[in-house]
Design brief:
It contains 14 helices and no strands. The chain is an all-alpha fold and 290 residues long. α13 packs antiparallel against α14.
Length: 290
């Protein structure tokens, strides 16, 4: 009967204007009625929607029969969603367990490494001297590479045609963002050395960075040179802090004095450091003579 209903439509033997009562139409309607009766057995009772005000006033009540029926058709446990925090914590625990610490330490941040060292020294005070002996001096090569890279970006942004000036206001507007990035990196590097109380490395970094700042372009409009002057001022301030807080020997101070005398012609900000060294060395000579 199904094949016959899906096949070519047969022409009724007797013509009737009432199409709904043709034999083919009656067979199709009979099939549709049987399918509706069969599907109605699997359908659950439809839950009527309540008003928003009624839903808000409901209290926590035990599940009704509809809730029990819906629980029978709940998804499998494999498809139950887990919160992202639980997933992340589970993944972190799996990744840390079974990995050597010298390998896992490569993936953590600087702040995390500081916390690990702080907890290690707090739990094992006997290791403090050994760790102090193993801590190396800061590597200034990557800091110098970053400053040189940012300086190259400044010159790459300048106009490269002969008809345009490279020191006017238009050129400055094109490189102002790179100048600010250069200054920010210089301040961050010196701050990290100051916070770590690596005063010898701080003086070496300031002397190195002084030459890089000197190589930056000078502008026709004096206010545009404010970033360049602020970089010189920050470096001289860092040198002064290192001279006051650092425990330098006399030979080290004499060597620093010679290096600073070679740089004093670039900016007047360094004269404060040179006068401080002159006074300190002169005072030390008097004390040794007595």
């Amino acid at each position: 009967m199904v094949i016959q209903a899906r096949g070519r439509r047969q022409i009724p033997l007797t013509f009737s204007p009432d199409i709904t009562r043709s034999p083919l139409r009656q067979r199709i309607q009979g099939l549709q009625y049987e399918m509706q009766q069969h599907n109605s057995r699997l359908m659950l009772p439809i839950q009527t929607r309540s008003s928003p005000r009624k839903r808000l006033t409901l209290s926590d009540t035990p599940p009704s029969a509809h809730g029990i029926a819906s629980s029978l058709y709940s998804p499998s446990p494999d498809r139950i969603r887990i919160s992202p925090l639980a997933k992340r914590q589970k993944i972190e625990n799996c990744s840390v367990n079974g990995v050597d610490p010298e390998i896992a330490i490569k993936a953590i941040s600087k702040k995390q490494l500081e916390n690990v060292m702080e907890k290690l020294l707090l739990n094992h005070p006997e290791l403090r001297q050994e760790v102090s002996r193993l801590v190396p001096t800061p590597d200034l090569s990557h800091m110098e590479e970053e400053l040189n890279f940012l300086k190259k970006n400044i010159y790459k942004s300048l106009p490269n045609t002969r008809l345009e000036s490279k020191t006017d206001s238009l050129a400055y507007n094109r490189v102002s963002l790179h100048l600010q990035t250069f200054k920010k990196r210089l301040v961050e590097s010196s701050k990290s050395l100051t916070d770590g109380e690596q005063f010898t490395s701080l003086v070496d970094y300031c002397i190195m960075a002084w030459g890089v700042v000197k190589a930056t372009p000078e502008w026709d409009n004096p206010p545009h040179n404010s970033i360049r002057k602020s970089c010189f001022k920050h470096l001289s301030t860092s040198v002064m802090k290192a001279l006051k807080d650092g425990k330098f020997s006399r030979d080290q101070l004499v060597s620093i004095q010679k290096k600073l005398n070679n740089l004093k012609g670039d900016s007047d900000e360094l004269m404060v450091c040179i006068k401080f060294l002159d006074f300190y060395l002169a005072d030390s000579r008097k004390s040794t003579a007595l």
